[in-house]
């Protein structure tokens, strides 16, 4: 037992021979190639996109919709001072900004619609649960009144005797 050494007791980095280094490099290359193949053709993702009609919105797309376009400093100049190239770029920027705001508005409307639907579902579930609890209350009140009637009858019978 004294002469046995566990791997975790050794603090020095292990020396690798050329053959071991080549073998590890080959294993790593195979792993990277396999990962590249898996990333290249994601059948599940393609199927989901086809099923949703190409309208699938990912988290990174949602983050893009929450961003805002930034105006550059030269865009604040009056039209007379701008060159033709700057005017064209400014018109393109305004067009992009308009499209971006429209896309953002649609995304917000879609989110609002989903939230409203969720709220309605929660309301319905809440009302159903309240109705169940109310029915249970009525059932137990009925049983309590029934037992009280039995008690009253017993008391009446005891007084008659």
Integer count of domains: 2
| Count of individual beta strands | 0
Instruction: Please report the number of helical segments.
Output: 4
> What is Rg?
37 Å
Percent helix range = over 70%
User: What is the H-and-E element order?
Assistant: HHHH
Largest sheet: none
Report the structural category: mainly alpha
Distance between the termini: 93 Å
Task: Estimate the mean pLDDT confidence.
Answer: 84
Unreliable parts: none
Strand content: under 5%
In one word, what is the shape? flat
How do the helices and strands line up, and which of them pair or pack?
Layout: H1 18-40, H2 43-51, H3 59-66, H4 84-160
Description:
The protein folds into 2 domains: 12-56; 57-161. The protein is built from 4 helices and no strands. It has helices spanning 18-40, 43-51, 59-66, 84-160. The termini are far apart.
What are its keywords?
161 residues, mainly alpha, 2 domains, 4 helices, flat
Brief characterization of the structure:
This protein is mainly α and 161 residues long. The protein is 73% helix and 0% strand. It has 4 helices and no strands.
